[in-house]
Design a protein that fits this description.
By secondary structure, the chain is mostly helical. The protein has helices spanning 11-15, 25-45, 54-64, 70-85, 96-109, 121-130, 135-150, 154-159, 195-208, 233-244, 249-253, 259-270, 275-282, 287-300, 303-310, and strands spanning 165-167, 173-177, 189-193, 217-219, 225-228. The strands form two sheets. The chain has a three-stranded antiparallel β-sheet.
Length: 314
């Protein structure tokens, strides 16, 4: 297939792409990183970045198949496609030569992605019990408790605001996710906070003297509450809490900012809650990712597991 040059008036725009705000902040950031990686590779490997055709994209896949995770390469291909489609240009990633290059990579590396270690209810309890009770400890405990109940992504957790919370007479509350990955238009999603979670959250809010704005803030070395906590801190905080609770290095290293989300989904499935309700609670649009989260639980409840129990081999 012949490689076609981008029209002259579009060439500078194609080198430096600004992905529009129709995508979530995290998606735009990821696409921008992937696009920069692709253009840098083009310049360093002798491929003309103004002449982005299917053969160039396939060569990019082959060059990175052993260097990057397959999921990272897949996201880069998605970014290349979006960059072209958003500018009404032919998408080179749809060509057969690119699909074949991706199949080559998957055949060698596999398509399975590493899943974050779940922070389930039992682990949550141990982490809360082991955490300090100073100002930072109160914040970290509140973050963990809220993240588990709300089942949100780390960016959504950091965006939660006190004015979006509505308290109930029974000591529980609901809180609005003003914007999420699956709600880019900002219609809002309402999530539940249990009584014990609200009690932990209130201790942090009182100690930090927070009466409006985002729930979770950074704290400096002098114990002063500052601005919003960076999203990247969520995983670090959860890892430290798990380490303090005595969990092994193997468990700790696989904890991410989504670990409470995985744990919540697994606990819901174990409690017999139906898939549709779990999807609604976590904001999943399709059951595919949810199925990944609960697949090990499903295996433990499979016909093979029931047969082993019947044969007293468990």
């Amino acid at each position: 297939m012949a490689t076609m040059a981008a029209p002259a008036e579009q060439q500078p725009k194609l080198l430096s792409v600004d992905f529009d705000d129709g995508y979530s902040n995290a998606t735009r950031k990821g696409y921008a990183c992937d696009w920069k990686r692709f253009i840098t590779w083009c310049l360093e490997s002798g491929h003309q970045p103004y002449l982005i055709g299917p053969e160039t994209v396939a060569a990019f896949v082959d060059a990175h198949a052993d260097i990057l995770r397959p999921a990272t390469v897949s996201r880069a291909i998605a970014a290349i496609g979006v960059a072209h489609r958003d500018r009404n240009m032919a998408d080179p990633t749809k060509a057969r030569v690119v699909r074949v290059a991706m199949k080559r990579m998957w055949r060698v590396r596999g398509r399975r992605q590493r899943q974050a270690s779940p922070i389930n209810f039992a682990m949550r309890g141990k982490m809360l019990a082991a955490a300090r009770d100073d100002l930072l400890g109160k914040r970290d405990k509140a973050m963990l408790a809220v993240a588990y109940d709300v089942g949100c992504r780390r960016s959504e957790l950091m965006a939660l605001r006190i004015q979006d919370m509505e308290r109930e007479d029974d000591g529980s509350a609901t809180i609005l996710l003003a914007k999420s990955k699956v709600d880019q238009e900002g219609r809002g999603l309402i999530r539940y906070l249990a009584r014990d979670t609200l009690a932990v959250l209130d201790r942090w809010l009182a100690a930090a003297k927070i009466v409006d704005g985002v729930l979770f803030r950074s704290v400096n070395v002098h114990g002063q509450v500052r601005g919003p906590l960076p999203v990247d801190e969520v995983a670090r905080i959860f890892k430290k809490m798990a380490e303090d609770a005595g969990y092994s290095a193997d468990v700790v290293k696989n904890i991410s900012g989504h670990s409470t989300r995985v744990g919540m989904a697994q606990d819901m499935a174990a409690a017999g809650i139906d898939i549709a309700s779990i999807m609604n609670a976590g904001g999943w649009r399709t059951p595919n990712m949810l199925a990944r989260y609960i697949e090990r639980l499903s295996a433990r409840q499979s016909a093979a597991a029931r047969l082993a129990a019947f044969q007293n081999r468990t």
